[in-house]
Amino acid sequence: MSEPYQSPISPGRSWYEDSVGERPRYPALDGSARADVLVIGGGFTGLSAALHLARAGIDVVVCEAARIGDGASGRNGGQFGTGQRLWPEEMEEKYGLEPARRLFAMAEEAKAGLHETMVREGIAADFRPGQISLAHRTRYVDEFRRHADHLAERYDYPHLRFMDREETAERLGSSTYHAGLRDVGTGHLHPMKLLVGLGRAAARAGARLCEETRIESLTRTAAGLWEARTARGTISAARVLLATNAHGGRLEPRSAAHVMPIRSFIAATEPLAEPDRVLPGNEAADDSRFVVRYFRKSADGRLLFGGREAYTSASGDIAGQIRKQVVSIWPHLSDVRFTHAWGGSVAVTMPRMPYVAETQPGLDVVAGFSGHGVMLTHWTGKLYADRLTGHGDPLAALRDLDIPAFPGGTWLRAPLLFLAMTWYALRDRL
């Protein structure tokens, strides 16, 4: 019997891989090719862009360095969320009220658009409604209460409400947290099933998908075309979308300075013996720590718990460290067996908002969703396609954001981030 496939870019084998069913393979590029658009990266952003471009009659090639699903799009927490990564109050302070409203509305369109795509393309991704956010310190309780009122009054979002400590404990199955928010206008899903479905839909629409095809260099010719060199040939295209997120390396140095890869880790238990004692309403959950804990139950009653980040390449004992966090919330799970533990690289920006830019003529970069990308990546891929097919400039609201480069340049940014994140993690504990 052959060994199970192991992603070359992400540690551990995920429960998603073992529960997705058939995971299609797409051939590597063999020889040279031409296209109207080259998409680099086979995650949510790249596949969504390819799907919508191909449906509009654009000749598009997608190149994925590993296999589709090996990156964070196929291995994440699966939570939709509401709005952007920053709360509307934070966006108002940073950008003003009207830009904040536009960005919130874009996120709501993304939520509806992803549901529409799943229905239209027949993608069954185990969607379940509901999400709760948890206050791990008493000082956040009033802030949570004001946030629910703020969304209802200024953003016409009636689906979020404040929960006191008693209701929070009832919905969580633990009295660990001080208060919470319950959002019935969002939910969570199986990200690998969504990604596999997007890949199939893009291929049906006519996009050419190439796995295990790493782009080694990008150059612009005198004729104004982009040439992407691979180990087996070159691809020429009028436009390029760089949708590698945390895996772009220095392929495009200007964007690399603005986007930092970090690793996040998840572990999955066996099906719980008493599933109703943990998240009895089957919502997803996240908490107020800077190094956020995020968790939910799978359709077959497992606890999927993410709660550890790393700012180096080390992964260590993923399950052992996550077990401590699980038991701190639900002591009765001290002996539960973990069947899977895995990680993946996500991309963050300094302000935790997406980095969207045309860094060179015909070369667009979309990255840095900072852990809030399940629905937003899909939508930005679609908006990129809309822009190329003559539907205005719907990405302007994101492209106009001020996303500064990380301090320290390409050599010092990682050590500086490590020091900063270690400080914030210490604050979470203390």
UniProtKB/TrEMBL annotation:
Enzyme class: oxidoreductase
Region (Disordered): 1-20
Entries under SUPFAM superfamilies matching the protein: FAD/NAD(P)-binding domain
GO terms under cellular component: cytoplasm
GO molecular function, one term: oxidoreductase activity
Ranges for domain FAD dependent oxidoreductase: 36-387
InterPro entries: FAD-dep_OxRdtase, FAD/NAD-bd_sf
EC code: 1.4.3.-
PANTHER family xref list: FAD DEPENDENT OXIDOREDUCTASE DOMAIN-CONTAINING PROTEIN, SARCOSINE DEHYDROGENASE-RELATED
The protein's name: Gamma-glutamylputrescine oxidase
Native species: Aureimonas phyllosphaerae
Classification of source organism: Bacteria, Pseudomonadati, Pseudomonadota, Alphaproteobacteria, Hyphomicrobiales
